[in-house]
Amino acid sequence: MNTPFFPRAICLLSLVVLLSCSAVYSPYIYDRTAELKTETMTLMNKGTEPFGKYASKIDQLKADLESVRQQEQLRRHNSVKQKQWALQLDSTGYLLFGFLNKWKQDTVLSETFVSLQRKLVGEAFDLIQETEKDRSN
Length: 137
Description:
Layout: H1 5-21, H2 27-44, H3 55-74, H4 79-88, H5 96-106, H6 111-134
Helix pairs in contact: 2-3, 2-6, 4-6
């Protein structure tokens, strides 16, 4: 049975519009986020040692994280992930950059504090990755 051209065209156009409204999965961003999470967790473990000993590694990690954040800001239909990165990288917040600022301020952190913060920061990274992975479905 032949369907008229107009209804098929409307369906096709609707599908194209819906697909163009959603952000596209990026395997690079997903993998890079996993790498940065690993680097972050390793560095956070050092929080019980003097901050100055790791200052250059911290600066490099911050630069790498900011680079991914910039890439996320360039992606269309990506406001949720942009907010997730903003929270993770807020120096006055309670996630990664907040942790790094406290470490710098206090020089050495307690093992309990580091452990609890690693859990929070790790879960935030997991959520960022999960949000990216959901785009592949």
